[in-house]
Amino acid sequence: MQIGIIGFPYSGKTTLFQTISQIHIDPNSTTRKDSNQAIVKVPDYRLDELTNIFNPKRTVNATIDFVDFAGFQNTEQRGGIFNTQFLTKAKTMDALVHVVRGFEDDAMPHIFETINLKRDIQHLEDEFVLADLAFVETRLEKLEKDLMKQKNKSEVELEIEEMNRWKETLENNTPLREIEFDDNVRKFIKNYQPLSHKPLLVALNFSEDDVNSAKSIVSEIEVQFKTDKIDIVPFFAKIELELSQLEEEEKAMFMSDYGLTSSPLDRLIQSAYRLLGLQSFFTVGEDENRSWTIRKGMTAQESAGVIHTDFYNKFIRAEVVNYTTFIQELSLTKCKEKGLLRLEGKEYIVQDGDILNIRHS
């Protein structure tokens, strides 16, 4: 899974990237990069506890690939703030994090000169719509030409119909994530990856002076922007970067002092999993404990295929016990003796926290 971190210059997005990746980026470097990238382990207390119990040779967390994009520059050009390089890369992301500046700092002037959270969130949403509209208009021109050449016109006509629906939606300044797609046209979303359809996590970057007031500000922003595909979370760049560099004991004390209950990485991952409809299951044993990421609703056979294609093709049964049940017994043998370790077929819908052992031929 890839998540892109985007925003205007001096919004704190690179600080967020450093906080969750533990990679230091020199702000005084003369070498400008279009993006920074890091693979980050997904923390999961359940996997940690399973590791304490099984003491395997190795433990493998699920991972997320975070990409920190260069800050946007405001322009009046058609197509707005996104250049071709950004569009090409951003469309490969599974979700986007928009870091929005909520703090004053005279040394780092805001690109619009004033701090306005709602304006900045809406500005980026408008830019997503503009970029998608430009693509749709270009695509429609090509499709109209293709229609004259094709003998079998039904597929082209279907796409033209769908692109016109997108065009009408975008011209009404409505992101594509707000309309429904059936199976016949969902392939166009997969092929073209429109920005305004991507799940969006808005990280409001406050100063340490706003810790106590952040919750009410987030609630106000949620009224206007929160949907099934948009989450709003607070972030305190300076103090959370310091927090990430402390030992665990110091970290707990530091968080308590500021009234923080979770790390920015935890908040990002929880929101990303919710927005993308993801969950985790585990495989355990003496050699390895591992967390696997799947989409909600996947069957046991489909989940087995995430481990290895042979497990999908040669699937027989899955031995299943959920983490919450297992942790009461602390032993797979005891779970089996009490009938808590079940045998499930290929159509079983895997639940978050299931521990699976795949039987295959």
Query: Architecture of the largest domain, CATH level 2?
Result: 3-Layer(aba) Sandwich
> What is the class of the largest domain in the CATH system?
Alpha Beta
According to CATH, the homologous superfamily of the largest domain is P-loop containing nucleotide triphosphate hydrolases
CATH topology of the largest domain: Rossmann fold
H/E element string?
EHEHEEHEHHHEHEHHHEEHHEHHEE
Mean pLDDT: 90
Instruction: Work out the count of structural domains.
Output: 3
How much strand?
15-25%
Q: In one word, what is the shape?
A: flat
Largest sheet: 6 strands, mixed
Assign a percent range to the helix content.
40-55%
Question: Cα distance, first to last residue?
Answer: 30 Å
According to DSSP, the number of beta strands is 12
Topology:
Elements: E1 2-6, H1 13-21, E2 35-41, H2 45-54, E3 58-60, E4 63-69, H3 84-90, E5 95-101, H4 117-149, H5 154-171, H6 186-192, E6 200-205, H7 214-225, E7 230-235, H8 237-244, H9 248-258, H10 264-276, E8 278-283, E9 288-295, H11 300-307, H12 309-313, E10 315-322, H13 323-329, H14 332-337, E11 342-344, E12 354-360
Parallel strand pairs: 1-4, 1-5, 3-9, 5-6, 6-7
Antiparallel strand pairs: 2-4, 8-9, 10-11, 10-12
